[in-house]
From TrEMBL:
Species the sequence originates in: Streptomyces lunaelactis
Regions that span the bilayer: 85-103, 115-135, 178-195, 257-277, 289-310, 330-348, 368-387, 399-421, 455-478, 514-541, 561-581
Stretches for region Disordered: 203-237
InterPro entries in the record: AB_hydrolase_fold (IPR029058)
Name of the protein in question: Integral membrane protein
Length: 786
């Protein structure tokens, strides 16, 4: 048996736990030492120390005048593996998941807040149906139905020869072609299920160190806290401090089952619907009865999926490890069984059946577009009602940020799905133009997709106006800031070029604060133009170039140009997604850039869409919480958790999870922090002024550093109150010196968002925080005295 480690004195050592920001850095860079050693963790996320400090806990006398530095590296959770670059294709799912967390903070509106969560989950479900419908459009309609049914299309494509209607083979019947092609969208749904299940096991399974396990209580009390934001039968705690906030196994498993079933049912409806429509007009009574029974079963399955999505939200007041076995196991299996029956039913021999025109994808995409628009409008009404209850001037878009972001998610889904369909149709049609009579070998994709593509150039032209306004406004702001810059440095002989450069950096950094305005314009324009596209496709039933064929030549030419340009732009957008993903698979720098997107977008748990990229915070926050709890308990020392940029958000979330006894020995130092500027404005229910004030009230020691040149970080705007001083330090000068001097003989750079630790104020504030923490008694000392 090894001897017990020596007990440090009652004062204990001091530890600085560094947490990096977006994009990630190496532990060598964080600790400023080429020799580092991993203390705890794995290849995805770990705590590192300098090699010389590896045994620092055993020799606290060596660290009387400085803290022991540790670095928590979490970047591999988002950008470590090249295959994760393919997560870029899941961008619409990630964006709609953000909309769930953007609801305004409002107590007493239990029904409205529950409705808000349900509406976001339904929008997310519509995106899964849209993606699957697009895959069905490509595989079933364009390939199996239109191209395989047209000898002109299959003439130069030998790989489609066995499906060609001209061959009169076993596979030439339309129903059998559809059944075979259905394997493609079904495989896509299966792949999404597999990826979600795999990441669910790796990310949502990290148990926090606080809270209670689920008990056999009633379901109504269990799910009351997800959409209301307030627990029903428990003591009120800040949302991010609840034991089950970072433990979403139950909800993600439930949503994964529902979305998987929805995907399979969409494919089954495309296959069985085509065969049933033929049988109703063919006079075959047994097949007609089978078709009607199968369609009724599909409707029942769709109702069950919507009920599962509607019924339950998140459970946060405790660690709920239960799984809804009936929904998780039965629902996808039943949907897959209905898909198999649909394929068998469609494969039944129908010698007189000939594929012509197109499958009814036009109706499908029109219903999806209308449903998404209605859901977004209803979501905006719910968000407006909530915001009226708790108004705050800093809340982005007056509480309408969630609906606006949900609209952007739908638009992204439309661009990706429409881009695939349009490009495949152009490829199959060769030199012809799908949708134009006499020009193409196939009818082409649904007319609505062409109308949606046509509004993209109009949207881009409309965005030129706010872009020009922003450019002029930034130039004018830089001119107004120039005297303030010179006054800050009290320079006797100012340099006009230097002043203009600093003022311009400050003005450009302020553009972050107008992001809500830009998002609102884009979302509103997208909603209006999308409604116009649905109306145009519905009224005319033809692509824009033909719909305006009887109009003035200029109108007709403009419509054809918009259709052509929009079609290529929508296809180019999807191609860029794919090529960027392939480049990131091979290029580490590009992979790191994509990792930054996920660092910002996947901080939140998967509460709306289970196929979104996984939430890295469900691993990182428990890691940090466990480390702070165990280290302070073992050593009785003082700890300052030091977070930069996105790392400050992780640090704050981890501090919220700490037990009160541990929190008294922990200080929080944030710098370049988006806690209020981004998270507080866009996620007011979780990082708004009330939440940040609650965090300061629970934490005795918190200090925030910021620069006016930083485009991401800013003040947290938590004022002094009682014994608690103001959290924000006065703005740091950037650059630290205006011109040359004896101390700074060379020009100092404008750092903006980086290198906060190089500022002399950093070490000063860290030391003052540690001095304010009362040390505890280490566990070894308590054990020996007993």
């Amino acid at each position: 048996m090894s001897p017990a480690p020596p007990v440090p004195p009652s004062g204990g050592p001091a530890l600085e736990l560094l947490v990096h920001g977006v994009g990630g850095v190496t532990p060598q860079d964080m600790l400023d030492d080429p020799r580092t050693v991993r203390i705890t963790g794995d290849e995805k996320a770990a705590v590192f120390r300098r090699t010389d400090d590896a045994d620092a806990d055993l020799h606290p006398e060596r660290y009387r005048d400085r803290p022991i530095p540790e670095a928590y590296c979490w970047s591999n959770l988002t950008s470590g593996n090249g295959t994760r670059a393919l997560w870029l294709l899941l961008l619409p799912f990630m964006v709609v998941n953000l909309a769930h967390w953007m609801r305004p903070r409002a107590k007493g509106r239990r029904t409205t807040t529950r409705l808000y969560g349900v509406l976001v989950r339904l929008v997310a479900l519509s995106l899964t149906v849209l993606l699957t419908a697009a895959a069905c459009e490509v595989a079933l309609d364009l390939l199996a139905w239109q191209c395989a049914g047209s000898p002109a299309c299959t003439r130069d494509r030998s790989w489609l020869g066995f499906l060609s209607s001209a061959q009169h083979g076993w596979w030439s019947q339309p129903g059998r072609r559809l059944s075979l092609a259905a394997l493609v969208p079904a495989a896509l749904v299966g792949l999404l299920w597999y990826l979600s299940n795999r990441t669910w096991s790796a990310y949502e399974s990290q148990r926090p160190p606080t809270g209670e396990d689920a008990s056999a209580s009633d379901d109504s009390a269990d799910d009351a806290d997800e959409d209301t934001g307030e627990p029903k039968k428990h003591t009120v705690r800040p949302a991010l401090g609840r034991p089950g906030f970072w433990y979403g196994r139950r909800l993600v498993a439930r949503l994964r089952a529902a979305h998987t079933a929805a995907g399979f049912l969409t494919v089954a409806a495309a296959v069985a619907g085509a065969a049933a429509r033929h049988d109703r007009g063919a006079g075959s009574t047994p097949l007609e009865i089978c078709g009607r029974l199968l369609e009724a079963s599909l409707v029942a399955g769709a109702v069950a999926v919507v009920w599962v999505v509607f019924r339950r939200g998140r459970s946060e007041t405790r660690i709920d490890a239960r799984i809804d076995r009936a929904a998780v196991r039965c629902l996808p299996g039943a949907a897959l069984g209905l898909l198999a029956l649909s394929m068998l039913y469609a494969s039944w021999s129908r010698p007189g059946w000939v594929s012509g025109a197109t499958l009814p994808g036009e109706v499908t995409f029109r219903v999806i577009a209308l449903a998404q628009g209605a859901l977004v409008i209803a979501l905006a009404v719910a968000a407006w009602v909530l915001h009226r209850r708790a108004r705050h001037a800093r809340t982005a878009m007056s509480g309408l940020g969630g609906p606006a972001v949900a609209m952007l998610a739908c638009a992204l889904g439309g661009v990706m799905t429409g881009g695939v369909a349009q490009r495949v149709a152009d490829w199959l049609d060769g030199p012809g133009t799908p949708g134009m009579d006499g020009e193409g070998a196939i009818p082409g994709p649904p007319v609505l997709l062409s109308w949606q593509a046509s509004v993209i150039p109009v949207l881009l032209i409309a965005l030129l106006v706010p872009a020009v306004v922003l450019g002029v406004g930034t130039w004018l702001a830089a001119r107004r800031l120039a005297p303030l810059v010179e006054a800050d440095y009290d320079e006797g002989h100012p340099d006009e070029v230097r002043t203009r450069r600093i003022a311009g950096t400050r003005a450009r950094a302020a553009l972050t604060d107008v992001a809500p305005w830009i998002v609102g314009i884009v979302s509103g324009a997208t909603l209006l133009l999308g409604a116009g596209a649905v109306a145009g496709a519905w009224a005319s039933g033809e692509v824009p170039g033909k719909a305006f064929g009887d109009s003035h030549d200029f109108v007709e030419s403009a419509a054809e140009a918009a259709q052509a340009i929009g079609s290529w732009l929508i296809g180019l957008g999807f191609i860029l997604f794919v090529t960027w993903g392939r480049r990131a698979y091979r290029d580490a720098s590009a992979r790191r850039t994509i990792g930054i997107l996920w660092d910002v977008g996947t901080f939140w748990p998967r509460a709306a869409h289970p196929f979104a990229p996984p939430c890295y915070a469900e691993r990182a926050v428990p890691d940090l919480t466990w480390r702070m709890c165990t280290w302070t308990k073992e050593t009785g020392g003082r700890l300052v958790i030091s977070g930069h940029s996105q790392g400050s958000v992780l640090a704050a979330a981890a501090v919220w999870q700490l037990p009160a006894a541990t929190r008294r020995r922990v200080a929080l130092l944030t710098y370049g922090s988006p806690l209020e500027r981004l998270y507080g404005r866009w996620f007011p229910a979780y990082f708004g002024p009330v939440a940040l004030s609650e965090l300061r009230g629970q934490l005795d020691c918190w200090r925030n550093l910021w620069r006016p040149t930083d485009p991401i970080g800013g003040p947290v705007l938590v004022p002094a109150e009682g014994e608690h001083p103001e959290v924000d330090r006065e703005a740091l000068k950037d650059p630290v010196a205006y011109g040359r001097s004896g101390r700074y003989p060379l020009p100092e750079p404008i750092l903006g968002h980086s290198e906060y630790q190089a500022d002399p104020a950093f070490a000063t504030e860290r030391g003052e925080l540690l001095d304010r923490i009362a040390p505890g008694i280490p566990q070894q000392a308590r054990g020996s005295s007993a």
